[in-house]
Amino acid sequence: xxxxxMLHFAAERGxxxxxxxxxxxxxxxxxxxxxxxxxxxxxxGPSFVSVTWGAGGSSRGRTxxxxxxxxxxxEIEAMAHLTCVGASRxxxxxxxxxxxxxxxxxxxxxxxxxxxxxxxxxxxxxxxSYASDLVTLAREVSARRGVKLCIGGAVYPEGHPExxxxxxGIRHAKxxxxxxxxxxxxxxFFHNRxxxxxxxxxxxxxxxxxxxxxxxxxxxAEQIQRISALCxxxxxxxxxxxxxxRANDPEAALQLGVAYAxxxxxxxxxxxxxxxxxxxxxxxxxxxxxxAALRAHEPWRE
Length: 302
Fold this sequence. Notes:
By secondary structure, the chain is an alpha/beta fold. The protein has eleven helices and eight strands.
């Protein structure tokens, strides 16, 4: 099922959608662990899961393999990420053809982050420079193959790490939608105000597609530092200090991260967000606990 259809049907029922992001495992043990996680997730009713493209596009084949297997073996809808990193236009066309022919109907089209050790994004000499270009290409390839892909894009409520100008972020989001993006997923954030302010600016700019908030429970002080460096999300001083105070008590840090993210999600859903997209880092214990609490409490009905 297309993600836009899930969102439509969920809205008709007055319910949110919940999705989980994983990265492709590096070995067979990782694959087995991922599928064990998906089995544990199923009773909680996830709407869909997504599988990332791997750093620098390094896991292309495994991404498509995982998405296909997840759809076939777990009956959970799966979305494939696709990035411009290190790929020519021809290679991207070939990957899109594989996606269409495999029956994958949901794709997240991203420019992608620079490979490790590279400070800025450098497009392939024969590749694409922007996510909006990839959305256009996905529309073209899928049309040629007689497939109607459901295409998503990414947005940054606090500005992209390469530019903190929020007006540029809105402009890029609008370009993605004009190119054919059907929905948008936000980068993680820790202040819900950032998300709702961004959605307000997007609506004022004429962006009407669904914008799902992205949430990741942070469970260690080291994780906080990495997140800030990678995506630029502002971390509340209180949360950072509380995690540092629990540096020698991993269980207490986990409980704190789960509690903070659960409160965040409850407020998002109570205030009208269409759902939550969880960044799991392939460790779903925290996100499973959050989803179980949300299912039990149902803040969207308040």
